[in-house]
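Ticket #4471: complex job returned nothing on first submit. Input attached below:
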Amino acid sequence: MILNSKIPAVPVEQAWDDARFNMKLVNPANKRKYSVLVVGSGLAGASAAASMGELGYQVKCFCFQGSPRRAHSIAAQGGINAAKNYQNDGDSIYRLFYDTVKGGDFRAREANVYRLAQNSVSIIDQCVAQGVPFAREYGGTLSNRSFGGAQVSRTFYARGQTGQQLLLGAYQALERQVHAGAVEMIPYSEMLDLVVVDGRARGIVTRDLLTGKIESHAADVVVLATGGYGNVYYLSTNAKGSNATAIWRAHKRGALFANPCFTQIHPTCIPVSSEYQSKLTLMSESLRNDGRIWVPKSEGEKRSPDQIPEDERDYYLERRYPSFGNLVPRDVASRNAKTVCDEGRGVGPGGLGVYLDFSESINRLGRHTIEERYGNLFDMYERITGEDPYRVPMRIYPAIHYTMGGLWVDYELMTTIPGLFALGEANFSDHGANRLGASALMQGLSDGYFIAPYTIGNYLASNKLEKVTAEHPEFVKARAEVAGTVEKMLAINGNRTTASFHKELGKIVWDECGMSRSAAGLRSAIGRIRALREEFWRNVKVAGEADDLNPSIEAAGRVADYFELAELMCIDALARNESCGGHFREEYQTPENEALRNDEEYSYVAAWGYGGEGGEPELVKEPLTFERVHPSQRSYK
Amino acid sequence: MNLTLHVWRQRRSTEKGKMVRYEAKDLSPDMSFLEMLDVVNEGLILKGDEPISFEHDCREGICGSCGFMINGVAHGPVQGTAVCQLHMRHYKDGDVLYLEPFRARAFPVLKDLAVDRRSFDRIIAAGGYISVPTGSAPDGNAIPVPKDRSDRSMDAAACIGCGACVAACPNASAALFTGAKITHLGLLPQGQAERQHRAMKMVEQGNQELFGSCTNIGECEAVCPKEIRIEVIAVMNRDYLLGAWKSRESYRDSVPAELPRAGGKT
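Support reply: We reran it on our side without changes. The output follows.
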């Protein structure tokens, strides 16, 4: 199989204009004849559904939550990047493009990233017009801050709730279309299979989460905007319900899955406090601007932090990276925290934590300034841990936060199944091996507002689609399979809960395919995942009944998919014999223990085809070429 | 730490429910309230019983999914905190807790502690937006917004739509929720064109959903996890009254009462 990325053969600066001009258009009067299913209602899904409803397509939008406003985009804190150059500090579309390609460690497509930077400008305009209350200066203009190592101030924000405000903007646009009758919103509904007819995506099978009813919906196009797969690790900063089922079932129906091992670990999360922990909470990266990270110099230190004198503390990031210090990129900060904890110098319960100490900043700037900058974060920390970070250093530890990998899509955001599109975190397209801070929101909205509405029109106008209904044999078959799986899980009636399997799986993936990976560890992980999966299908206990609101069934179905996805993540990590971005292979590092890329052999997107039950997945490579930004070794020393 | 729970169990909205007693044992003070329920549920599943249904998702206090009454108080005893961010250190060994769903006619019980809050979505759909089609926006800095207005708009926009305000209100009024959206959009210059129309449409939808009227009791403000101020209700009333006055018969003759809206019916 040869992947056609459909990138126009013109310089990147002209690619999107060229592509848009060459797209076929659907006559305004004909748009209402086409139906589109949008699965997911986060930034990408809500913005796509609203925009296509507005254009006149018949749109149905699905979410598993009770309301589209509860999608996990709502939890993004920091901000959204845009190349507005409002600060007159030398920013430009080209600079945002450059920073994103480099930040992704040269594993993203130049043309996609350039288009993302171009669209960033329109996103801010759109959101302001919708009433998103971005932070402002006294003169009434929009305020910006710098973020995650960028040398310009290009991040727009709404306090620490940027994701919430952007999502509410998209949600309101969506509800406006619902009111107008252009979009049918179907909440409490989980997609459990994709239906492919004559090689094209023609519908989905869903389970009504309130009644357990297995339903199906036929359409001309299916759009997956279902987010990432961070919950494979059990503990992550994702919402409890975030899951990979929609993209995984699409993968099993033929969509290639790209770069599954590219996962992002965020360095500043609140550490695990007990075995009951159900999820991890992020503390904004901005804390690293004023906090100093340290651990005791000696192993097994038992004294409280205020009893440890200055000369017995190791400010390891400042020591190892004198020029960037505590502000090194996410992957570097995370790996170093793991290293010191592995050495036995970690702090807090279980020794999995490092101090983030504000005492020096409080002395220098005064408590009031720190309160103004981080008050809400300090309050949140205290609420969760019961410790006052103004007096005691915070404890932080890295956690899974975002997944760069996802369904392979071409330049038009279409997967390898014609008629199936993937937007936002669900696709692999723009962040390479590492995503920069404040870029996830940008990508979700770029895909949903400004790319998919055009490219989907192009697909519809270029193809003659036969009429298909939900009574087609493929739909009947898919419904029966889904119902069969639910029955099968209920019938096992074993001795272990789904959560206990999920925790064990998460620990394997976190240990062997998390912050650092090795060939031996990955091989062992694959074996253990297979064994655990086998036990799951023999010994899981799912409570309740099929025709009812039953969270136990929902959880079991998602975990069943995580086993398969986790295995593919390990296979991908094992096949990529280099270190890049969030993928750090212990065998491939510089003498200073930094990630060592291998551009000669691994400058490609690894897209995996489903190998069938028990079969081997097939690797298809999409080579990456760089015309503008030339690959170089990142250095933060 | 050990607790005694009395939990409302109800299979579906059409069936009767009742309080059921559970013993929650060996709890850690660092657990969140929902993690405590996870532990109880794991025990129930292993015994072959149905776990207690409760809505939850982000567990960071921002998605608005979670929420139930703990000893009669929406989201429990800690102010400005959704139940997912409430930790067990606020309780002591031997405490007895009564957990009930948010109760309102407009929030039918789905199962146990989970309620259907789609009526909130319909209030937003009735007018809780600024009508701006994708692609038709002017430059972000074209219209300056004074910082204090923008900040006050953001204060109101922080609403997470959890429904605690409705559950706490003796009238089951959605005034705090509706007022928060009307205030958020009405304070911004972008929101002026549809301002009164928006208030009228949203308030009318709330009435149709069978939410009660506001009688200024203030329980809503006390339980709001985002500490939305009750002033938003005054803003809602003002915009509604202005809209109602302008759309009266004699005024309607000179000005079209319905603003044109893209995408079809009004």
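The CA atoms of residues 205 and 573 of chain A lie 32 Å apart. Closing as resolved unless it happens again.
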